[in-house]
Amino acid sequence: MKTTLNHMTVPGLGYAEFLDLAARLSCIGVEVRNDIARPLFDGIAPEEAGKIARDKGLRLVGLSQVYPFNDWTSEREAQVQALIDIAKAAGAETISLIPRNDGTGLGNGERQANLRIALKGVLPLLQAAGMTALVEPLGFQRSSLRSKAELVETIAAIGGEDHFKLVHDTFHHKLAEGGPLYPEQTGIVHISAVTDPALAVHEMEDEHRVLVDGQDRLGNVDQIAALLAAGYDGPISYECFSPETQAMPDPYSEIRRSFDFIASQLQARAA
C-alpha cells in the first residue's frame, strides 16, 4: 500500500513540518493544498518547495485545487493555468479539479454538458504542459458530479484518457451508493472514516471524516482491498476533515496506528 498524506488531515502543520510527518510515516508523497488557512507552500517558491520535498524522499503527488472547475469561464481557465504553472515549477505530478457542490447544475443534460465543456477546456492546457488532472466526483446529493460512470464516459468521449484520472474517495464512494471502481482510470485514492453510529449516510459531511479504525462505517478496507485486487497500484492518501482529527496532539502516533490497522486488515484478507 503506497501511503500518502493530504495536508487537510494536519492543516495546522507548516509545510516543512507536514513533510517531516509524511516522511516519518514512510509515505511515498504528499498532497499540498491551496484551500487551507495558510499560504500554499507557506509562501516558499514552488521550485524550492518541490526540492525540499524531494530531498526528504517525498513525491508531490498532487496539488489542490480548482473549484468549481465545471463552471467553465475565462476566470476558471486562468485558475487552471495558474495551478498547472505552479505544479510544473514545483514538480508536482497532478492538479486537482473539484466540481460544483452547492445544489446547482444538477439537471440531467445540463450536468453532463457542463462537465464536457469544462473537460474540453482543460484538456489542451494539460496537453501543452504534459500534466495530469485528478477529477473528484463528490457523493453529496448537492454535488454536480456524483457519478464516476458519467465522468469516465465524458473523458473517453473527448479523448482525454491520457490527461484525466479519477479520484476514488472512500467517503464519496459510500455517499454515492457505490458502483464501479474503475481502477485503471483512478489516479489516487482518498481515505477517511465515519464512525458516528447516529448518522444516516445522507447526513454524513466532511466534518465527520476521521481516521480509519475498527468502527469505520464506510468500508474503507473493503474498498481498498477491491481496488488493489483489481490492479490499482497508486497512492492511497489520508484526507480527513474532522476538526478533532485535525487537532490531534500526536498526529504521528494516531495516523501510524490507523495505517497499521488498515495494513493488518488487508494482510489478514490476503492470508
In brief:
It contains 9 helices and 8 strands. With 271 residues, the protein is α/β, with parallel strands linked by helices.
Textual characterization of the structure:
It comes from Marinovum algicola. Keywords: Isomerase. Residues 20-262 form the Xylose isomerase-like TIM barrel domain. This protein has a single domain, classed as TIM Barrel. With 271 residues, the protein is an alpha/beta fold. The protein has helices spanning 15-24, 46-55, 74-90, 110-129, 148-157, 170-175, 220-229, 243-246, 251-270; strands spanning 2-6, 29-33, 59-66, 94-97, 132-135, 164-169, 186-191, 235-238. Strand 1, helix 1 (15-24) and strand 2 form a beta-alpha-beta unit. An eight-stranded parallel barrel has the order 1-2-3-4-5-6-7-8, surrounded by five helices. The mean pLDDT is 98.
What count of helical segments does DSSP give?
9
Query: Low-confidence spans: pLDDT under 50, at least 5 residues?
Result: none
Question: Which range best describes the helical content: under 10%, 10-25%, 25-40%, 40-55%, 55-70% or over 70%?
Answer: 25-40%
Radius of gyration over all CA atoms, rounded: 18 Å
Strand-residue fraction? 15-25%
Q: Return the structural class.
A: alpha/beta
Major beta sheet summary: 8 strands, parallel, barrel
CATH superfamily: Divalent-metal-dependent TIM barrel enzymes
Distance between the termini: 16 Å
The CATH first-level class comes to Alpha Beta
Write the H/E string, N to C.
Answer: EHEHEHEHEHEHEHEHH
Q: Can you tell me the CATH architecture?
A: Alpha-Beta Barrel
**Tertiary shape:** globular
The CATH topology corresponds to TIM Barrel
Q: Give average pLDDT, whole number.
A: 98
- Total domain modules: 1
